[in-house]
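Intended use. Records like the one below are meant for learning the mapping from a protein sequence to its folded structure. Do not use them to infer anything beyond what is encoded.
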Amino acid sequence: MQEKYDIIGVDYNITRKADPYLFSRLYTLLNPVSGNLYLDIGCGTGNYTSEFSKKGHQFIGIDPSREMLEKAGIKDKTITWKIGKAEHIDLPSESIDGIIASLTLHHWKDLKKGFSELNRILKPNGKIILFTATPKQMKGYWLNYYFPKMLSDSITQMPAYEHIESCLKANSLKIHSTEKYFIQPDLQDLFLYSGKHNPKLYFKNSVRHGISSFSSLANAEEVQQGLVMLEKDIISKKINNIISTYENTDGDYLFITVKKA
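Structure written out for the chain above:
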């Protein structure tokens, strides 16, 4: 079966670039050590993997999409790129010093099995850095107003914090800390809520094509209707009122630092 990102991956790098701030947080939280071996699970085209490599760290990138990995290989030939999924990782037990998993949990078929595999390959005292969004956070996106069915489907596939915590605990993995992330106006990695401060971003086909919710979950009629309504509200400035009603302190996304017991 063709992976959804084999389709999305065609023009993925146009809008999905490594964001400097997000990378700086991933780097600080992972705190990689020179000479150790790390894994980026669900690496996509390797935007963040490559940034770690540029700083001299040894990484393996794993993704189920061959299209994505072909682009990753062109970008950085020093990294080992492998086809695979979180639930089935072709690496020896206790061979990895640390792992990053950015915006990938919602694509895993079996979260508990995925964490079991990460625990298996992770060395004792190893660390996992997750970057994700919770259903609670996503309910605070103003996108719900314009694309209700798409957001509902997106929220349904996103694992809740409690479920993540439970699956980690079942595999001797413990949440060490969490850190809320609020979308910044200069965000360079244009994922789902990247247009929080710039609604006009969603009018760009290239931006929507690089977001799985728009390219894989949404139906064309709802997207078209939502964009028409959004355009009218931007012109009338009603959008400002809509956005204000969704303001909250829950954060838009979440960094979760996990440690192996």
